[in-house]
């Protein structure tokens, strides 16, 4: 037993029948073989990481995974949403084949959501599917993309157009990795944390209002609690609806508006979480127009999003028509109807595909710009 | 109801829990909307076919799928195993995105195994998975690759290295498409038919010995019976072991030897079925050396393979060492052990990873060449 295995950590499980898997959360887990080695399929391990994360954590993770004759290799990819392409995933496959790795190998994603999405997709399709472990190092990937099994890449014609549902064997969240995360990216991750409160847990909204300053100051206990609560809500929703036929769509609160902002402004100029922050406020404002939220509830949402360091306005360069034309292409639409996730009340979301078009037009025109 | 729906056909189901799907077998099914339309997910349909098959059957299938306002399009790909690449699958994805197809579209594979494998992989990963229907037009794809959900493409470093398990919603087998199939490809398909007898059904071996001439003369009833019996055996094995953890590996009888021949000779010079034909005889001969088959049983296997028009010798240019070096790379090996599917008796196969290396060397050296 290593020293680090005596560290405190917490655990929850994602319940997916035969593919039940644990999420471990705590400080220092990256260095703990006991958190990682039990989830490897065999002796062949490929760490997939990025140029930013590799200098910080690659050698430590490699050290934790090595031993017992294991063949641990790495592939280091460039950073950024624009690298989330099929060509990057092909580089992972080429590396696996060049290493002679067989169907009992394991891919370990070390990095943010882009790395996790690409490594997961590579694992899903290498020899028709191999083992996969997530070690997410950004708050966004810890509370969102590392849970739920969505993997994939972008295509010039759209985000996440190619991919697979592929579950990890384990998610290992070392909260200390957040100490090296830029403040702007911490805020982007908080957008998704706030989302879980808005869609499912009004008590969590109140907890976040009280603890937001502690979270932004990287208080260890606050972070562990927020990550665990977020993962628990997401895990519950995913377990009920693995392939997004119904309830899972609620996780897209703010995302249809947010994707429109990201797409119009160019991916990477607005961070995903920033666009979701503004998008959630747009969803709340539309919910108010439908008579589902009170004005002071929308102000409460706005204050929480602002307190997290996120934008509460849309880009000045984006017209209502810009929003509409991009939103109509969203792959969450079924046939011709525009489906939106809205708030039926604080802490409760719904899917709505019958918003009057003049009401939506007015919201998109009137929503504050900056 | 159309005239063609009054035609006789037979049906069996592949039992995969929520993904149970039917296989329809009979003459003229290609023209019958009732065989096809109930399995479409929505209004958007993309037929994936090849340059050889398109002039023969594309317009007829399009006609059967059209109507009710459906948007039916096609993508026609070049023929041949060497086109089974990620680049070809990217062409399918580009066509789907250019058409604006959403996650409720359906891909329909019209052609042989290469088309089915690529269209299935494209369906598995387009927007993380869309509906898929198989209309196989070669005997090989009708009895083998269209059943079981294996999809994928080759990589310069190996066959079928990238792919997914993805089940069709239905398999529609029109036996009349075999009238346009070259005799050599019919024989290649018969290799897999014989395989089902050898691994699981000694009575089917006797039936094939009696009906082989009728099958090669395209006797309609004989073809329907042979296809149904083959699909039933494969469906039963696949249902018990969808992701190839155990019993499903028995379907690889002759394939480890056969892949070595294909790989050494260049894919396409030996047809897959031809290589499997010779490979099954090599497996039978090795089973005899292990004391599991009598010499006259091996002669019976040899006569049946020869009667199907398949080779019963290995390539003269291939040494025993050539076989060994390629077989050791086979992805069916787990860690370092060479796993072979052999015959414990006629009509019963087993997985064996403890063949004495001098016995295997002798078989590979002594097996007849031509």
TrEMBL record, chains A, B:
Boundaries of every 3-dehydroquinate synthase N-terminal domain copy: 75-187
Residues given in the record as NAD(+) binding sites: 79-84, 113-117, 137-138, 150, 159, 177-180
Keyword Acetylation listed: no
Pathway: Metabolic intermediate biosynthesis; chorismate biosynthesis; chorismate from D-erythrose 4-phosphate and phosphoenolpyruvate: step 2/7
Residues the entry annotates as binding Zn(2+): 192, 255, 272
Gene Ontology BP annotations: amino acid biosynthetic process; aromatic amino acid family biosynthetic process; chorismate biosynthetic process
Any one cellular-component term (Gene Ontology): cytoplasm
Subcellular location per the Swiss-Prot or TrEMBL entry: Cytoplasm
Entry-linked NCBIfam families: aroB (TIGR01357)
HAMAP family from the UniProt entry: DHQ_synthase (MF_00110)
Its job: Catalyzes the conversion of 3-deoxy-D-arabino-heptulosonate 7-phosphate (DAHP) to dehydroquinate (DHQ).
Protein name per Swiss-Prot or TrEMBL: 3-dehydroquinate synthase
Organism: Chromohalobacter marismortui
Gene (UniProt): aroB
